[in-house]
Design goal:
By secondary structure, the protein is α/β, with parallel strands linked by helices. It contains 16 helices and 11 strands.
Amino acid sequence: MPPKDMRPKVIRYLTTGWRLAALSGLSGLVMALGQAPLSLPFGLLAALPALGWLFLNNQGRKGAFLTGWYAGSAYFAASIYWIMEPFYIEADVFGWMAPFALFFMALGLALFWGTGFLLASFARGKPVLRLAALAAAWTLGEFLRAHILTGFPWGLLAYVWSETPLFQLLAFIGPHGLGFLTLIIGFIPLVVSRNIWFGGSYAVLLVAFLWLGGQWRMSAPQPLSDIQVRLIQPNAPQHLKWRADMVPVFFKRAIDLTRAIAQERRPDVVIWPETSIAYPLEEESIALQLVSQAAGPDTQVIAGIQRRQDNSVYNSMVYLDQVGGILAVYDKHHLVPFGEYIPLGSLLSRFGISEMVETNGYGFAAGSGTRIIKASGLPDFLPLICYEAIFPGLSQLGNQRPKWLLHITNDAWYGNFAGPQQHLAQARARAIEQGLPLARAANTGVSAMVDPYGRILARIPLNKAGFLDVKLPKPLGRTLYSYLGEWPWLLLTLLIGAIVSLKYRKSKEITLP
């Protein structure tokens, strides 16, 4: 016979059935408001205590799991709804997949939250320990989400602070560490005072203290180098980008932007976005020669292009000298599942499922991996193509250290609102984490120069063709995060897990007859 539920009737009512789904889902929706472009992080101070309260007052493993799963489903559905946009580029072919993609993606990603809540439900003891276990297990779930099945670390909790000085904490504890700290702040009202409103003032004071610390860090002057960079934004809508009659139109537009007269002096390097050269890479490419001629005799070019080798196609970045010669080629290696390649492609093609990029076969082939480009006449740089900028680990290279990060992307896939803005926020996070400037050329925007503090020095707005001449900022010294990576919060999580394990074993011993 199961033990009698001794909880007050109102708590039993709120933590079961559709009420649990509604309260958890509403909390997840409020949390999603913190992601760009709305960037309203303070909803967390209401949503996280609510989820913490539901967790503390739930009975059993199932209730804990469902609390996290309902909240995560709502959070991801609201924050990554833009994943439907690529399916509508060719709506007659892929449009039917869009609602299913969002539905199953949100439910699938929410499993990582639900699993975190489930693991934390094994904690025994006072609320402070149980909530610490929840923060640790939830963060561990987010870490696993960033790595399992190639990973999808989009919309991490840390990014809700992208428009605030708290974003500077990325330089010290990284995105998962900041996510862990965010959860701790959100749970403070439940444990530091019997009055949740009075306890909330402690959380606000901590946020204010961290805010001032971040503001102080950003008050340092940021010197600029003598390297003049030109970022090109041709603004080619995705549904027209590869159309045979429009390819030369967009190519000429980019050539004209490259050739445009500079206000001060000719740039040292011109950067074109991802796959902005629509002609395949060849050793004696007329297209590359035209690009270099437009840039001028003293200017190098870095551009996105497709490269064919044997039976494979690569999404590549080509680095050209002043006469169109190829100095270096980088192939994107972290590809988008179902967007740039199809797992088990030959099998799924029988069901009419294929990749959405313009290639033959089953999508792009993966490059050999992350590497620093040893530049000639430019500081050494780390290339990132599109999706690669959302992975903190790809810019974490140990003792190897570039002087700047280069991100080329085609955000026309992501629509005109949340997708491109969230992608920009995550690219800025990479700059803060490493203390390196980041130059970003995006096909439809947002193209920008970002300093090592993640501040945007200059930008070209969404859906506008143009170019941007701006000096490359100088890098900072190595950040604490670049040295330690994820180890601080992982070790703290292991410590909390050990304490929870001991408490759980003792509680089992006490209940033995």
